[in-house]
Design goal:
Length: 289
C-alpha cells in the first residue's frame, strides 16, 4: 500500500466503504457534486471490459425516468474527473443524453483506484472471469501483491485467486471465448487440466462445435486421461493375468483387457455393435444363440 491508513488496509470483501478515505478533496464539506459528464475521463485501471448492451439500455431508460440515483466515484487528474467506480452508470448516463452526473470526488491513490474498481465489479457477481483474472494479475504486477494478499483484499480463497490468474495462461482464442461467454468457468477449469496448448484448443473447438455443457466436457477429458493411463497400465501389466486374458478372449471372441492383479482388478470387454453386445451377454449368461 502506498499509505498506512487503516482504511486502505481493510479487505475488499467488506465493501467500497472500507476503501474510501474520509474527507472530500473539496472544501466546505461538500461531498457530492454534479459534474459535466464530458469532463469525466475513463478509469485506465478498469478491470471490466465487457458490458451487456441490453442491460446498459435498461439502465439508460431508468436514468431518463429517475435520474442517476447513486453517484459515481471520481478523483481529480489534470483538471479532469478520472472515473474510479461507476462505469456502467457513466455509460448509461451518456446513452440517456444527460449533461451532468452526480459524483463523489475523493483523493484516491492508484492502488485504491484499481481496488475499488475491482471490488465494485466483484460485488455485482457478474464480472467476466477473464476480467477478474486480469484484475488480480494487475494487483500482483503493479503493486507487488502476493496471491495471499489479494485473497485477503477481495475476500476470496487463495485457490480461487490462483485459478482466476491461471486463466491468463490459456491460448488467446479460448480466453476470448470465455470473455464472450461462449464457454464458462467450468469449461475453462477442464481445459486447464490438459497438458498442452494443442490439446486445449482441440477440446475447446469440440466444446464450441458440439455446444457441450460442463459435465460433457469433463467426461471427454476424463476419457482422454483414462486412455492415457490405460496405455501405461497395459504396458506394465502383471504377467500373471496373461493366461486369464487369453481364456476370456477365446471364450468371448472379442478384445478383453484385465487391469490389476489376480486378487483385485477390473475387466474391460470390447464390443462393436448392438448385436455384438447381445452376443457377448448371451455368452456371459450361458444362453445359446
Amino acid at each position: 500500500m502506498t499509505t498506512g491508513s487503516n482504511a486502505q488496509k481493510r479487505g475488499l470483501g467488506k465493501g467500497l466503504g472500507a476503501l474510501i478515505p474520509q474527507g472530500s478533496v473539496f472544501m466546505g464539506g461538500r461531498t457530492v457534486i454534479n459534474v459535466d459528464i464530458n469532463s469525466v475521463i475513463p478509469n485506465p485501471r478498469q478491470p471490466r471490459t465487457n458490458f451487456n448492451k441490453e442491460m446498459l439500455q435498461d439502465l439508460a431508460d431508468s436514468i431518463k425516468a429517475q435520474g442517476v440515483i447513486e453517484p459515481i466515484l471520481t478523483r481529480m487528474r489534470n483538471g479532469k474527473y478520472e472515473l474510479v467506480a461507476g462505469e456502467r452508470r457513466l455509460r448509461a448516463a451518456k446513452m440517456a443524453g444527460i449533461a451532468a452526473i452526480p459524483s463523489i470526488v475523493k483523493d484516491f491513490t492508484d492502488e485504491q483506484s484499481l481496488e475499488i474498481a475491482l471490488i465494485e465489479n466483484l460485488q455485482r457477481e457478474d464480472l467476466n472471469p477473464m476480467d477478474e483474472g486480469e484484475g488480480y494479475a494487475r494487483l500482483a504486477s503493479e503493486f507487488g501483491m502476493t496471491q495471499e494478499d489479494i485473497s485477503k483484499k477481495v475476500g476470496k480463497s487463495r485457490s480461487t485467486v490462483a485459478n482466476m490468474i491461471r486463466l491468463l495462461s490459456l491460448p488467446k482464442p479460448i480466453k476470448e471465448s470465455l470473455r464472450e461467454r461462449e464457454i464458462f468457468m467450468g469449461h475453462a477449469r477442464t481445459l486447464l487440466s490438459l497438458d498442452s496448448e494443442a490439446k486445449q484448443l482441440d477440446l475447446w473447438k469440440q466444446m464450441v462445435r458440439q455446444k457441450m455443457n460442463v459435465r460433457d466436457a469433463e467426461v471427454v477429458t476424463q476419457s482422454k486421461h483414462r486412455k492415457k493411463s490405460t496405455a501405461k497400465r497395459a504396458f506394465s501389466q502383471n504377467t500373471e493375468l496373461n493366461s486369464i486374458i487369453e481364456k476370456l478372449t477365446n471364450r468371448l471372441a472379442t478384445k478383453v483387457k484385465v487391469y490389476g492383479t489376480p486378487e483385485r482388478g477390473r475387466i474391460e470387454i470390447d464390443y462393436f455393435s448392438r448385436e455384438d453386445l447381445e452376443r457377448v451377454l448371451d455368452i456371459i449368461e450361458g444362453r445359446k444363440r
